[in-house]
Amino acid sequence: GRPRSEWTPAQLDAIGAVDERGSASRRDDDSVRPYVTIWSVRLGNNLYVRSAYGPDGVRYVRALASGRGRILAGGVEQDVRLTHLAADDSAQSQIDAAYRDKYRNYAPAIVDTVVGEAASAVTLRVDAQTLDG
Prior knowledge:
Helices cover 28% and strands 31% of the residues. By secondary structure, it is of the alpha+beta class. The longest helix is centred in the last third of the chain and has 11 residues, at 92-102. It is globular, with a radius of gyration of 14 Å.
C-alpha cells in the first residue's frame, strides 16, 4: 500500500532524534511483551525498523505475525501498526542511506546487519496506531 503515517511532527522529531528505542510486540491476548532495544530510522513522515537477525529473528517473526506493537523513544510511548515493506520498494535504498547516516558512529560490522539486500527483505514500516484503525 501507499506509505502513510499518523505521527505528529513532534513525535517524528522526538523518535527520530534517538539512536535506540524500545520496541515491544503484542501477544495473541493483546498483552504487550517486554520492551527490547531496536534501531529505527525516519524517512520523511515514516519510521522504519529492520531485523538485525534476519527473517528468523524471534522479535521480527513475532512483530510480523501480530502486526501490532508499542514503542518507547524520546519521551514518546505509542501503540503502533507494523507493516512489511517489500524488498523491492523504492524507499529501500533511502532507508539504507538513513541507517548508514544515523548510525555512522557505530562499527561498520554492526551497521551492516541493518543495511543491504538481506536487510531490505526484513523491513517494517512503523505507523502510529490511531483510534480508528
